[in-house]
Design a protein that fits this description.
Pfam families: S4
CATH topology: Structural Genomics Hypothetical 15.5 Kd Protein In mrcA-pckA Intergenic Region, Chain A
Keywords: Protein biosynthesis, RNA-binding, rRNA-binding, tRNA-binding
Largest sheet: 5 strands, antiparallel
Helix content: 25-40%
Strand content: 25-35%
Oligomer: single chain
GO molecular function, one term: tRNA binding
Radius of gyration: 11 Å
Shape: globular
Organism: Sulfurovum riftiae
Structural class: alpha+beta
Strand order of the largest sheet: 2-1-3-4-5
Protein name: RNA-binding S4 domain-containing protein
Distance between the termini: 21 Å
Length: about 80
């Protein structure tokens, strides 16, 4: 799954367009390397987002099969580090 789709599907960001803008700005890293929107994520990947207040890191636990998941199931797909 593309990193921009994954970020919006697991409710890390509200909309895919926001995720795409973040990737274009160069503030999203996958396993320590700057990522493009088309970068595929796999289980076990570490995603870091450089916010103004400081970085936040996430670990991919599962890849969702649907477009979005319920917020109550977020812990099954992503772990905040």
């Amino acid at each position: 799954m593309r990193v921009d789709k994954w970020l919006s599907a697991v409710n890390v960001v509200k909309r895919r367009t926001i995720a795409t803008d973040m990737l274009k700005s160069g503030v999203v890293y996958v396993n320590g390397m700057k990522a493009k929107a088309s970068k595929d994520v796999k289980v076990g990947d570490k995603i870091t987002i450089e916010y103004l207040k400081g970085p936040k890191s996430y670990e991919v636990l599962q890849i969702p099969t649907t477009k979005t998941i319920p917020k109550s199931q977020k812990e099954e797909y992503v772990k905040e580090l």
